[in-house]
Amino acid sequence: MFENNPFQRTEACQMLTGQQYKESLRDGRATYFEGERIDDLPAHPLLGQTVDYTAETYDKFYNPAADAVSPLLAVPRSADDLRALLPLLNEAGMMAHVTSSSIQTLKTVAGRMTDVKPEYLERMQIYIEESQKSDIRITQCITDAKGNRSKSPGAQDDPDAYVRVVSRQRDGVVIRGAKLHITGASFGHDLMTIPTKSMKPGEEDYSIACMVPVNAEGVRIINTTYAPRHEDARTFPISGKYHYPEGFVIFDDVFVPHERVFLDGETSYAAVFAHSLGLWERLGGLSEFVSEADHLVGFAQLVAEANGTAGISHIKEKISEMMIQATLIRASLEAAISNCSIGPDGAAFPNELFVNAGKFYGAANYNTMVRHLHDIAGGAVLTAPAPADFENEEVGDLARKYMSTGNDVDGEYRSKLMYAIRDLTADSYGGWKAVTNLQAGGGLYAQRIVTRRHYDLDEAKRGALAIAGLSEHDAP
Known about the structure:
alpha+beta, 6-stranded mixed beta sheet, 12 strands, globular
């Protein structure tokens, strides 16, 4: 479908089926896993599982009408639209989420770059419409290799530590560098490549934003994954199906035509892309926190009941604290949506203060919720017998007997709870979650900065002065 020209996608003017999505990945892309080039992603025994799940979501939302546009790629126009879109993205998984946030990022950028070259805005709008029509998946390349973190892009020993333009040609640019931590990079069609931070005069070559096809010449992607490697995946009920490899994306002198370039050299606008993406990534992360927090509360209550400890006071207190945290996370998401703003072209944008404060609160308190869950569940989270042990004629009944905590609690059921808790919070996937909850959309420091920028500190000071019987004239 896309193999001939990686820059031409408009011939696919209707939604893709799952099978068409699979075929679209057989386009010559250079993707690697554990030292080997993978020429057929759908057929790979491990990476193919991610392809299969993504294909299932394509089929789930498929509409055969010639002019149909996936609801996953829609631009929200109101708070109700935002409220309806987020659960759809959570249901459809990571590839839908990063595609949606990429489209919304371009919409946000367009509203913030009204006094720059009009062709940039035209290109972004055309790209959005074409990506919606062709039903592609987009991932975001933002975090550079960075080299020495204490040095700016232009001061690095290796100038390629940040993605940069190495050649400007009549019909496009050539870029070089690498982007790290790119979830699902090998499983989409385009890489939204944008500056990771603000740039200053002299760093024009690093002020580049563009869309690069995954199969463009010079793009190479190294994959890592937390997916379980066990033959029996029953002990990994979550990560055994829902896993998204991370991509180490290398741009080895990649040509990008002008129509896919959205910024080239304007240093004052470099940070606009990162800030805009941060808004939508944090909204997505906050939305995920809502469901994750409820899952943690649910597992805590279920395992307490299975352990026979649900009535113990300190267990109830821990679960109550988890409920409060889950409720506050949900409240911040609702506040972000209900207080959305409408851009000049009618697109809805979530409230930045509530998005960032809520994302910070969810990430900062995630480990506390997990700690309570582990404390409630006990050591069996790590040591419960495997599913195959319960099927063994010699030890199966004994495992069931001793994993039981009473006549109404089946030992195998209790073990399955432990598998899910371990997989979600204490194994490879759990480690991935612990790190990405902090780092996705920028670390906690980034959320502090944006929260402070949007919080009305002057109003808070005026209120404090008023109740102290003072006026602004009294303050130094």
